Amino acid sequence: MAENFPELIDTRALRIGIDDGFNWVVANYGEALEIAFLPVLRMLTETERFLQWLPWYVVLLALCALTFVTTRSWKAAVGVAAMLFLIGLTGMWDAAMATIALMLISTLLAVILGIPIGIAMSRSDTLQAISLPVLDIMQTMPIFVYLIPFVMLFGPGKIPALLATIVFAIPPVIRLTNLGIRQVDAEVIEAVTAFGATPRQRLFTAQIPLALPTIMAGVNQTTMMALSMVVIASMIGAGGLGYQVLQGIQRLEVSRGLLAGLGIVFLAIIFDRIAQAYGRRSQQHLNLGD
Amino acid sequence: MTDEQNIKIKVDSICKVFGEDPESVMDLVHQGISKSDLLEQTGHVIGIRDVSLDIAGGQTFVIMGLSGSGKSTLIRHFNRLIEPTAGHILVDGVDVVGMNQRELKEFRRSKVSMVFQRFALLPHKTVLDNVSYGLFISGMNRKKAYDHAMEQISLVGLDGFENHYPTQLSGGMQQRVGLARALATDAEVLLMDEAFSALDPLIRNDMQSQLKELQARLHKTIVFITHDLDEALRIGDKIAILKDGELRQVGTGTQIMLHPADDYVERFVRDVNRSRVLTIGSIAEPVDGALEGLPADTPRIREDTMLDEGFRALATGSGTAIVVDEAARPVGVVTPKTLLEALAG
Ligand SMILES: Nc1ncnc2c1ncn2[C@@H]1O[C@H](COP(=O)(O)OP(=O)(O)OP(=O)(O)O)[C@@H](O)[C@H]1O
Ligand SMILES: [Mg+2]
Fold first, then answer.
1. Is the N or C terminus of chain A more exposed, i.e. has fewer CB atoms within 10 Å?
2. Measuring from atom 25 of ligand 1, which residue has the nearest CA?
3. DSSP annotation of A205
């Protein structure tokens, strides 16, 4: 038998320490945290209920209109209509609405949190040096690892699913906000400073508008990652299309898994189209000097 | 008024060293260590070494030098986009280096504005919004800012383009937007860092003429950076020459052309078409009784005529021409020999 790695430190103690510490947090703060996140939960369930309450053709028309406004392409709009129609036809409508709600709310929260973090990072080299490796770790960590602490804190349900999705999906928007602002033409920043702009005016009149295409690319990636997380999140009770896939696996119903999986792909295509086209539009006047 | 009484900007022993800990190498800098030695020994780069200048109000003051001589670094001290390692800048007697953030902001909004080499316009804003930018951020209401900006757009000849975006304009037009933006705040001091260097020669000529016309009307104090001596001679009332962050010579164009201070300046001067930048007055030989002996039809030339325009006058007549001032009083004579000598340098 090969030689085992020598036990230099007592990992058992370390592991017990970490687990005990975490359990202590759960025991003492679990309930407080749950209460703190109630408004978020409400927001999610209300959005879900609202989307399911809307007549299907309203949702379909709204998404088609949004696609047309951003892409200016009839083909894309018709494609979106067809995909949504198929989702409805295969009996996945309500599940799809639940998935859209989870994706929208988690993307929204990730963006609301991620952009300010990205801005802070762009202003401080120290903060950037600390944050980049953390973001790297967050993006390489297997998705399942995120579920453990959140499920322990909240038990299975929508809140841990939402939080795990946010943590999983937030790195791109932080990363690209930081990058976008740092890449803004230094001479333009000098110019606005030379005219007496305050740091806040500099941010809102120059840095954010000029970084917007990059920031939107980040939002786009975050949206896609949130969508890819919904299948996993369904395992801890998020519902939606992911839950249908899970049921398909559990009951060995290939058809159900396949149809729900197709629904997820359709949603991914739709939101990718919209987000990308929006990113391109906001870039229209920004190719100065190239 | 003499220059001494009318100093608008006083640059007082400015030093700028780039690097980890500039203070620590200042002793070496004062001892006169060379730029390359300092870089090799300490990893610090000298941007500006002990530059002092007096710039008179209403003057177009040109700072010139080759790439890397520290022109951009120097001009960015005037509105403190760069903090000096040592020294002071006084504008109207107030030390810019000593200003706090609030004072600096007010100073930048009202006293001094800047035009950039690569235009530095905001690509997501229209011409009108770009030109009114300085007014807008200092809190002027939109209508008033737009009205004022429209005047500046007219002034630089861009009527009708106010709703275009910068990318829809040519380089020359974009820089006129940059100029209008700088004029819009009514700042008395205009900083121009190689403002015309990115433009092609014909457009560049137009812009130089336009700047001269505007300046004749507006009487700003202009600090203009260039690496082109022709441009410097054309628009500058005074010219300062920088090398490796050090001041080599300050003077009028003619002074620099006729008496270059050292080899470096000499080399700049050599390639210039002297007939276009020297005036007849600057080469005239003073009159002493000799005037009487000349025939009555001897041609007369105004002293502020450029040499190239004086050729014709000399070609006619006996070969000598009388140089006169504005009031037609003789101040000297020129002969083909003096002219040729001046052209030969
Ligand atoms: N931020 C900086 N850090 C380190 N060195 C710098 C920095 N900015 C300028 N320098 C150095 O200072 C010197 C002067 O640079 P500066 O940009 O002022 O030159 P310039 O005369 O404007 O040249 P150009 O005609 O190429 O614009 C150069 O040697 C440059 O490398
Ligand atoms: Mg420069």
1. N
2. B67
3. I
Q: Name the residue facing B137 among A188, A190, A201 (closest C-beta).
A: A201
Residue B269, C-beta contacts closer than 8 angstroms, at least 6 positions apart: B229, B256, B257, B260, B345
Q: Match 């989702």 to its residue by tokens.
A: A87
Could you tell me which of A102, A100, A95, A65 has the C-alpha nearest to residue A80?
A: A65
Best residue for ligand 1 mutational test, from B21, B44, B66, B73 (most atoms within 8 Å of Cβ): B73
Categorize the per-residue pLDDT at A289 as very low, low, confident or very high, splitting at 50, 70 and 90: very low
pLDDT, one tens digit per residue, over B236-286 is 999 999 999 999 999 999 899 889 999 989 888 888 878 877 888 888 888
Per-residue pLDDT of B224-242, as tens digits, reads: 999 999 899 999 999 999 9
Distance A283 CA to ligand 1 centre (A): 31
B229 lines ligand 1 (CB under 6 A): no
Please tell me the distance in Å from B124's CA to the nearest CA on chain A.
6
Homologous superfamily (CATH) for A18-285 = MetI-like (1.10.3720.10)
**pLDDT (0 to 100) of residue B1:** 46
Q: Where are the beta strands (DSSP E) in B92-170?
A: 94-95, 112-115
Place of tokens 């398909």: A248
User: What is the span of the domain harbouring residue B262?
Assistant: 56-76+99-111+187-272
User: Is there a contact between B324 and B330 (Cβ–Cβ < 8 Å)?
Assistant: yes
